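Run log, item B.
One chain of 272 residues. Sequence copied directly from the ordering sheet:
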Amino acid sequence: MPAFDIESLAHEITTAQDSAAALSPPTSRFSDFTVSDGYDVARRVHEARVAEGAVPVGRKIGFTNEKIWSAVGLSEPVWAYVYESTVRHCPDGRAVLPIGRFLEPKIEPEIVVHFRAAPPVTEDPAAILDCIDWIAFGFEIVQSRFPGWKFKVADAVADQVLHAALLIGEPRETSRLGPDLTAKLERFSVALNCNGEVRETGTGANVLGSPLRAIAHLMAVIANQPWAQPIRAGEIVTTGTLTAAPPISVGETWGAELEGIELPGMTIKFEH
């Protein structure tokens, strides 16, 4: 296969993002395209977006289900930036979102956190929690620019880990979420429904053991990437899907309810 050029691939990705166009996965064209190469492409895409005026407001964690790591050749989760333009705050827990430009979109129920202080590189969930001032439930909408959701992790990393949008529900200060919050974040459950019918269920433990452990993994990954900025005070992090990610369609209304933690759910209607 021909050799690839990082700059050319980054331009290809940004052009496809701007035009809502599909792409063939880089790994299908370049046999030696790795996750590290995917991050090199994503970094250049990010730099191009910032140069255009995009404002990064945090990160997303992807592929947090360890059960699929061996199948996709992973040994750790992956991450991407999220931007002011792709994040919407919905404090009343309701939203309407146009998805006509998204490619094969899916919905992911997630826990979103906001950092009051820069978190340390640590495996201690309590130390991570101490740096968080609020937590919310949210929906991340992901999409596949690669037809049929057929890609490898390196391809997803290059396209900013498939991020399309993030909708964040009512934030709750950690002090309002009661005692034993670290344990609650491991044990709470969520039921995801479409038009009132439950489609998926999950728990906090599905995300690398808990959302806090997912953040600990993320911090370790970023620490080993010399080009990556560490997470800073004021950033949000969405910690990975709590359930399988079902496909969504125009006209559907999706919702989620949580049990075992004092966080309200959300409802979102999809329009063209």
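Observations after the first pass:
- The first strand starts at residue 56 and ends at 62.
- The radius of gyration is 18 Å.
Flagged for discussion on Thursday.
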